[in-house]
Design brief:
The complex is a heterodimer of chains A (408) and B (286). Chain A is α/β, with parallel strands linked by helices. Chain A is built from 14 helices and twelve strands. The N and C termini of chain A lie far apart (78 Å). The chains are: A alpha/beta (408), B mainly alpha (286). Chains A and B meet through helix 2, strand 7, helix 8, helix 9 and helix 11 of A and helix 1, helix 4, helix 9 and helix 10 of B.
Chain lengths: 408, 286
């Protein structure tokens, strides 16, 4: 018995002594998403996207012979994001944090990475502030919110007005937006485009997405009688407002949604046939692989979709895809280009890359002043007979844009 | 203009009734057990899930399954009270807060694991149907919820004031030691009262499921408002909680329309502070 114990102790010591050697063979990257709380559903999908990217790179041999190891954090709120980012950097030793899904979390994490000398690799938070606040260690692979607001206005005046038979200068456009940095960024982009066109919204207002009763907002929209309503919201508030617009007979002729609330499959689940005809401006996702120019990107796109479906029993959501592609660029393009795994080398490598194409058609090239990917664009989706089709721009479209009057 | 104001008042009152019924259970539990139930919103979420799954599995309309949901929540409330609340009945408020906050987190995360964060939507023929009277739209579902809320509050009030056990509950709320000396089984009163409070939130959950999609954190939004309604109406006051809820609904509706939706919450907190300055015990507490 005693001999067995001595033997066990000996092996245990061997394992302990070997641990630093094992630890040196991995590159630690932090992930930080809201995996519980109000955004848990999207947060979990986002994490799956990042984790698939990690596994793809590891299965292909890792980075310079080292495997990527994730240290993960759940940040349901921006306050939790601060604490968790600090933990990942100081206790877990992560130098790069992949995040964040929500813009509020992204801004909180960026403030921590900035003062801790780490990098925030932002894959999914779209607020303009994330890259406009002067942070020197933030790289964002996804598009900025203002671009979506701008795209919504362009779509309304350049395409929809003609379909409605209304001269562009007579088109009544209103905008409502949830008032966090997510919605406000899109509103600012839309306002800038309106000013450029010398136009004015017939009604524009922000609201709290956590509100349980949005009747007064719906009545304000009804009073404004817009032809086109641009609405930026998250999943839950969009459902409430869409139901209200229908119930109070306040629906516009055309509804353009901005972001997750209108493009996530949950919109269709909640609105069922009423979703038909609704437009959503968002990141490109689930594009036909044949539209990709590069054979390797087509293969990765297919591999990602097949693997995601096989492992999670559902098609990858937009959140999963955009986080996957952002993480894949970091692990597959940036880290191998870095001379070592110091923060300065990784930053230098990030600024040096020029990825001509990713699985959703974006190129990745970072603006050296802001860290924003200047290859990221927005697209317009339209719900057509239960399917979400890309209808704009023409190089990525999966179906033609149709004027489908809302059956509200 | 007049019809617009009337519309805002109608919408506000209907929304307020919904807040009221959630608040009534909360205030009852506070009034009798002297316990701030931070898990109240999560009980609402669970009752919404029960109602949703009853419809999905047994094809039961939420109004058909309402008695089952209320009964299930009553039993669930009694179980939770017996296991987690009873041991801390005499403990300090800090301990009670930690216990109910812990329960809230456990229930939220359990729902997340069991049902994921996905929205579950239940539509009934009434979900979006509107009655139009003189240009004023009344959502049928909200009207039904409001009617149920008012009825439940009246029945509870009558039960507490007229029945023998109701009087025992009130006696316990006034002075638990004296009630014990008078032969009232105080632990039993606590258990049943907690069950009734949770059954009321079950009633709210089952009646709002056609209006709101359910997801694991939905309770938090309503519980927040319920806490304000309870303090506004006077801690422990049943009519006060209902009136508090209606006042919040009205303020939300009117202030949201005239000053913008961003001002909704600020508006009812301003009124809340003003009322508390004038009447620190709330509107209905003597």
């Amino acid at each position: 018995m005693r001999r067995k114990l001595r033997l066990a102790t000996f092996f245990a010591m061997l394992v302990i002594l070997a641990m630093p050697a094992i630890a040196q063979d991995v590159i630690k990257i932090g992930t930080i998403f809201p995996r519980s709380g109000a955004n848990a559903m999207l947060g979990e999908q986002a994490f799956r996207g990042a984790d698939l990217a990690r596994r793809f790179v590891n299965e292909a041999g890792g980075v310079k012979g080292k495997q990527i190891q994730f240290v993960n954090a759940d940040a349901p709120t921006p306050q939790a994001a601060v604490t968790e980012a600090e933990r990942l950097i100081s206790k877990e030793g992560a130098k790069v944090l992949i995040g964040s899904l929500t813009s509020g979390n992204a801004l909180s994490i960026a403030s921590v990475t900035e003062r801790s000398g780490a990098i925030l690799w932002e894959t999914s938070g779209i607020s303009d502030d994330v890259t406009n606040k002067g942070f020197t260690s933030v790289f964002r692979t996804c598009d900025a919110g203002s671009l979506r607001g701008q795209s919504a206005v362009m779509l309304a005046y350049d395409s929809i007005a003609a379909l409605l038979g209304i001269p562009a200068n007579g088109l009544r456009v209103a905008m409502i937006y949830e008032n966090s940095s997510y919605g406000t960024s899109q509103y600012n982009g839309a306002m800038a485009e309106m000013k450029r066109r010398n136009m004015k919204f017939v009604f524009a207002n922000g609201y709290l997405s956590s509100g349980t009763d949005q009747t007064s907002l719906v009545l304000q929209v009804k009073q404004a009688k817009p032809d086109v309503l641009i609405h930026v919201g998250y999943i839950n508030d969009v459902q409430l407002i869409a139901n209200g617009l229908r119930g109070y007979k306040a629906a516009p002729k055309v509804l353009i949604g901005g972001g997750a609330g209108y493009t996530d499959p949950q919109f269709q689940v909640g609105q069922q046939t009423f979703a038909n005809g609704v437009i959503g401006i968002d990141m490109p996702s689930n594009i036909d692989p044949n539209l990709l120019k590069n054979e390797k990107d087509r293969a990765i796109s297919k591999q990602f979709r097949d693997r995601y479906r096989a492992e999670y029993g559902e098609s990858p959501s937009l959140a999963a895809e955009v986080v996957f592609l952002g993480s894949y660029v970091l692990l597959n393009n940036v880290l191998p280009a870095a001379t070592d795994m110091s923060v300065e080398s990784i930053k230098k490598a990030a600024l040096s890359i020029n990825v001509p194409e990713t699985i959703n058609g974006w190129a990745v090239r970072f603006d050296s002043a802001t860290g924003q990917n200047i290859g990221a664009t927005a697209v317009a989706y339209q719900w057509q007979e239960g399917q979400k089709q890309i209808v704009w721009p023409s190089n990525l479209k999966s179906a033609d844009f149709k004027y489908l009057p809302l059956s509200w | 203009m007049v019809s617009q104001i009337a519309q805002l008042i109608v919408s506000g009152v209907l929304a307020g009734g919904l807040y009221g019924i959630i608040s009534v259970g909360l205030t009852l539990i506070f009034g009798v057990l002297n316990l701030v139930n931070f898990a109240h919103g999560e009980f609402l979420m669970i009752s919404m899930y029960i109602s949703f799954w009853m419809s999905e599995i047994f094809n039961l309309n939420p109004y058909m399954s309402l008695p089952i949901v209320v009964a299930a929540m009553f039993v669930f409330g009694i179980i939770i009270q017996s296991i987690f609340i009873r041991p801390v009945t005499e403990a300090s408020h800090e301990v009670q807060i930690v216990i109910t906050l812990g329960l809230s987190t456990i229930m939220q995360n359990s729902a997340l694991m069991a049902f994921s964060g996905n929205l579950r939507v239940l539509r009934t023929p009434f979900s979006e149907s509107m009655i139009e009277i003189a240009g004023i739209f009344i959502n049928t579902q909200r009207l039904l919820t409001f009617t149920l809320a008012i009825l439940a509050t009246i029945i509870l009030y009558l039960y507490l004031t007229k029945s023998y056990f109701g009087k025992a509950i009130r006696a316990t709320a006034q002075d638990s030691r004296a009630a014990k000396l008078a032969g009232i089984n105080v632990p039993f009163v606590y258990m049943i009262t907690y069950g009734i409070g949770i059954a009321l939130v079950g009633l709210a959950g089952a009646s709002i499921i056609p209006l709101f999609p359910v997801y694991p954190t939905i309770g938090w939004h309503f519980a927040n408002i319920a806490f304000v309604a309870v303090v506004l109406g006077g801690l422990g006051s049943i009519p006060g909680a209902m009136v508090g809820g209606i006042i919040i609904g009205l303020i939300e509706s009117i202030a949201g329309f005239y000053f913008g939706s961003e001002f909704q919450q600020a508006a009812y907190f301003i009124v809340f502070i003003i009322i508390l300055i004038i009447r620190p015990t709330g509107l209905f507490r003597k």
